Every structure is written in C-alpha cells, then in structure tokens.
Amino acid sequence: MTAPPPLVDVQDLVKHYPGERSWLGLGRPRAAVRAVDGVSFTIPAGTTLGLVGESGSGKTTVARTLLRLTEPSSGSFQLDGVDVFSLAAGPLRRLRRRIQIVFQDPYSSLNPRMTVRQTLREPLAIHALAPKPQRDARVGALLDEVGLDPELADRYPHELSGGQRQRVGIARALSVEPAFLVCDEPVSALDVSVQAQVLNLLADLQQKRRLTYLFIAHDLAVVKHIADQVAVMYLGRIVERAPAARVYEQPRHPYTRSLLSAVPVPDPAATAQRIVLPGDVPSPAHPPSGCAFHPRCPHPLKNDRCRTERPALREVAPGQVAACHFAEQPM
Amino acid sequence: MTEPLLRIRDLRTYFVTDRGSGTARAVDGVSLDLYPGETLGVVGESGCGKTVLSLSILRLVPEPPGHIRPGSLIEFEGRNLLTLTPRDLRAVRGNRIAMIFQEPMTSLNPVLTIGDQVAEAAIVHQRLSRAGARIRAIELLRQVGIPEPEERADHYPHQLSGGMRQRVMIAMALICHPQILIADEPTTALDVTIQAQILELLERLQRELGMAVLLITHDLGVVAGTTDRVVVMYAGQVVETASTRELFARPQHPYTEGLMESIPRLDRPRARLHSIPGSVPAATAWPPGCRFHPRCPYAWDKCRTDEPPLLETGTAGHTARCWLVTEPARRTGEAAR
C-alpha cells in the first residue's frame, strides 16, 4: 500500500528581500536578506507539522508566502495537487477558501469597528457560502463550535478577552471551511490557562473537521502537544525535521538539542543540564559561512569543515533529516 | 529566621476607571516578605495584579488614575516607602532598590548612548564624576556579558539585539549595588535561547552581589528553576505562598494546581492539556466569597459566600487562601477531572 499524496507539498521555498540602497537610493545596495532559503516539507492530510524557530528564523515568512500574502521568490507549493504559486488573482481568491490563517495577536487581526457577527459574516458573503437569511445561523453555529456563547455575536473585539478573541479568529478562519490552516503563533500571546483551552480546541477541531495544520511556534513544549511532525528552522533553513517523537527523544541537530534544553521545566527537582548557547541569532543578511549555526554550536566535534562547508539536509534515521556534519554522533 | 529586607502589609492599589465601571482593585490586600539574598517569585496570569504590585513598591503607579490606599505598608530599612518625601524616595529608587522591565526597548532612552544611560545612576546616586561613572559603566557592561564594552558604551539601544538590551537594563539596575532587584518579566520578550542566557546571568549576579530578587513572571518553568520561594497571585490577592520545592510538590490552592497542570511540558508525553475553565474576572467586579470559586472544580456553598483568609497548611511557611485547607476531604480526585 502506498501512502496517499500529502495535502501540502512545499518544495525549495525561497524568499529573498533585496537589499535597500542607502543614501536615498543612490548608494550601494545592501546585502539581500535571505529570510527563507530553500525550505521543503510535506504535510499529510489531517495531520500537523510544527514549525519551530526563534525570531528571525523565517518561520512567519514561510506562513505568509504559503498564503501569498507575501510573494515567494521561488519554489513551489502544491495544495492537493494545485500549484498555488502559479495561480492568477481570480483562482487564487477562490483557493483562499481552502487555506486560512490564524494570527498571533487576535487583537490586531480583528477589525475593531466590526462586531463578531460582522466579522464572521464577511467571509460567508465574499465566498457566497450561505444565502443571506442563513448567515446568522451559520455565525451562531461557528461560535458554538469554537466554544463561544452565541450571545457574544454583537460584541466588539475590545469587549472580549484575549482567549475569546483568538476563538473568534479561529471561527473566522473556519467559516469558509478550509482544508489547510496555517496557525502562526496562535497561543503565544495568551495566558497559560487560556493557552491550554485554545490548544485543546485546535486539537478537537482538527479531529472533527480533518483539518491539516501548519503550526508555527517558538515554544517546543507547546508544539509537542499538537504536532505529528516537527521542523526546526534556523536562519531561513530547516535544520532538522522528523516525526515529533524522534525530535523530542533523539534530536540529531545540536541546535534542536540546545532549544530543547533551554525550555524551562516546571519542576524544581529537574536536574537536566541546560545548554546555554553563546551569542545572538546572526542577521539573515549576513549568515555565517559553512554551517550557519557554527558560531554558536556547542557540539564537541565542531571543526573547520563546519566553518567552510554547509551541511546538506540529509536522512539520518528513517523519516528524520538533519543538516549537521555530525548528525550521526549527536551530542 | 532573619529579619525581612522588605515587608509589605495589606497593600491596596486601586484604579479609578474613566468609564464609570467603578474602581479596579488591582492589588487588594497583599502582604509578603522578602528576605536578604533570596529570590522570591511572584506568579500569576495577566490581570492578577503582579505588575501593579511591583510598580507600587517603587511608587511608579501613575496617580491618578491609580492610588495606594491608606493603611498599606511597604517597609524597607525601617521606613514606610509609601510615606517618604519625593526626595527621600528618589534616594531609594534606582539606588537601594532597582527594577528591570519586560520590554528593554521601551525602557531605554533611544537618543542616549547605553554608556551614558548606565552611568547616569552612578552620577546621581554615588556622586561620581562623568569620567569615573563611565569607567564604572564599562565595568558593569563587561560584568553583564556585553562583548567589547568600551566600544559598545558608545552605541545606541537600536544597535543592540533584544538580549543585549536586556543586559544593558540589568547593568543600569545594578550599577549602585542595590539590595533589592525587582525584575518584572525580564525574559518574556526574549527567545528561549536568549532567555536561558539572561536567567543564568541573573543567577550569577545574585550570587556575586548577594542581593534579594523579586522575580515577577507568568512562567512557572522560570519560577521552578530560579526561585527559593513563590507567591501565587490571583485576582489582586496572594492565594498561595510556599518554598518553591514545597509548592511544586504539594500545591494546595486549586488555582495553583490548575496552572501547573495546564503548562505544556517537554518532560511529559503528548496528552490533552488540562485547562482552567473561564477566564480571570474583571478587577472592577471580583466575585464574592472566594474569588476563584466560579472557576474552581471543588467549590461548595461556603466558597460562594465566605472569603477565605490565607490559612496555614501545616507545613512551615506554606499558606493557601482556600477553604479546602480546613476541609481536605472535599478534595476528591473526581471533582477535578
């Protein structure tokens, strides 16, 4: 039996921002920013890929290019066999029904002058999904599905709590019945008790609607509770990708290993050694030579090869790829 | 035990809201002690009053709309900080008690070099000359791990990364050797690898300088790794206090328990997360009785009408604001699920 083709197939995605010219456009152009530099992944239908990285790793740019909110420089993205990056404006608009996004900050992504009802009716009208008289019933059903009291339909965003706003953001994304949902740090701005509510809601919705998620986060602990596969990004590239259990139990890239060790564990008796990486994430306009991680890498075998030769992303265990010369001898 | 360095008794900081929805009782009767050399964690979610508490200590709450109610006490070195003259208060602020904030970019002056900003407190409080203060500032920048501090001293905040800015904030706070450092979510805006650097730095500096740290945070993971004792806040009140080990081993308040179970954890298998139903009520209308009762899985009639005091749990130094302490039989496993 062969596996069904994945719903989401992204190959060699690149987004470079050309360097600006200083001196009012007359000076020398600065170095291009390679925000996303050759990212590939696939997501089987009904599953979740967790995309993890620190600020500046390019994870949000990946999200925005998939929705073509930002045009990619090159690469391909097939959604259920449709080549999204080559679509013209009209078909793209129709395709947006199938791809939706939930943003990090629900407050700035909801229109403050629209009630919840107006916010949720708009996509139904744009995509002609329900005749006018039925739209209010659909709004009520959506609110119910995301665990909000339908009484809240006539409230404005400022009258809602952070968790309620994020539920509205999720309801809006679901209103057009998408197949693929990009969640860009959907719980990072929420308090821990509310974060758990929203994570559970996303898991329930996935099961019920057979949704496919790209779940972007900086917190590996959050991702652990939702992802089937995990990809770790550093400076615009994926440095490790594997089934979730492998990433957490046997990380092969020293960056993954360091990220995992840096997450504070809520247990005062925890004795695990914290790896504290030196320095900051370098600028994506001037990535280090060779392996981009080498200046901060704590791997004891690090040598000249790391400084000169960029390691390829290669399979190091079944289903697990890592971009490290020493992936076979993990720390 | 030794005398506390800072004693807070029945602190009430209220805000008059402009839309007539009443008075927000942001901090509503908080008492706590901070001992020399210890790290005390203050934990809670947004709206629990932890930031207003920290601002009240240095009287940084904007008045109006805020005001600290008469009867509140914040005692430091035998004096009530709440009744000091502005002049006496300035001698404490940034000198004996210093503070670092969550967002280093908005707390640094964008038009002054970091060297000048770090040196400022030494000129004001220690009467150092400009040149002497600069030498001291560079020393501090080196101590907080800024590479090439001589050059960096002439840089502006926007030329630094978030982690470096937080290091500058720490250098500013420590230049006068404060006895107390108040750190309000010092790592929340930072990436996890940078957070690890800053936490390690704070630990090292505390060891070297022997100051007491009041660490305000929402992150129980940070609390577990860095504090000696913890105060849990909910709805403007302290709901539980204990040594860090004791709190994590035997949380007594249902809110503490719920918070701990709702944290996504790396050291546990993937499972559905526990969540606390509902959300934090508004500070203008705290629920009657126990303020947590509408969200509590164990609540019974008494909780809806009678407000529990902080009760001794039987372990030294462990108190919880919950009637379950008096009726432990009501804590049944089934009710929580």
How would you sum up this structure, described in words?
The complex is a heterodimer of chains A (331) and B (337). Chain A has 331 residues and is of the alpha/beta class. Chain A has a domain of 65 residues. Helix content of chain A is 30%, strand content 21%. Chain A contains 11 helices and 12 strands. In chain A, strands 6-7-8-3-9-10-12-11 form an 8-stranded mixed sheet, with helices on both faces. Chain A has a 4-stranded antiparallel sheet with strand order 2-1-4-5, covered by helices on one side. Chain A is globular and about 70 Å long. The model of chain A has no long low-confidence stretch (mean pLDDT 90). In chain B, helix 4 runs parallel beside helix 7. Chain B has 13 helices and 13 strands. In chain B, strands 7-8-9-3-10-11-13-12 form an 8-stranded mixed sheet, with helices on both faces. In chain B, strands 1, 2, 4, 5 and 6 form a 5-stranded antiparallel sheet that branches. Helices cover 33% and strands 20% of the residues of chain B. Chain B is of the alpha/beta class. The chains are: A alpha/beta (331), B alpha/beta (337). Chains A and B meet through helix 6, helix 7, helix 8 and helix 10 of A and helix 7, helix 8, helix 9, helix 10 and helix 11 of B.
Q: Strand-residue fraction of chain B?
A: 15-25%
Largest sheet of chain A: 8 strands, mixed
Q: How many H/I helices of chain A?
A: 11
Structural class of chain B: alpha/beta
Q: Order of SSEs of chain B, N→C?
A: EEEHEEEHEHHHHHEHEHEEHHHEEH
Sheet having the most strands of chain B: 8 strands, mixed
Strands of chain A, count:
12
Global structural class of chain A: alpha/beta
Silhouette of chain A: globular
Sequence of secondary-structure elements of chain A: EHEEHEEHEHHHEHEHEEHHHEE
Q: Which range best describes the helical content of chain A: under 10%, 10-25%, 25-40%, 40-55%, 55-70% or over 70%?
A: 25-40%
**Assembly state here?**
heterodimer
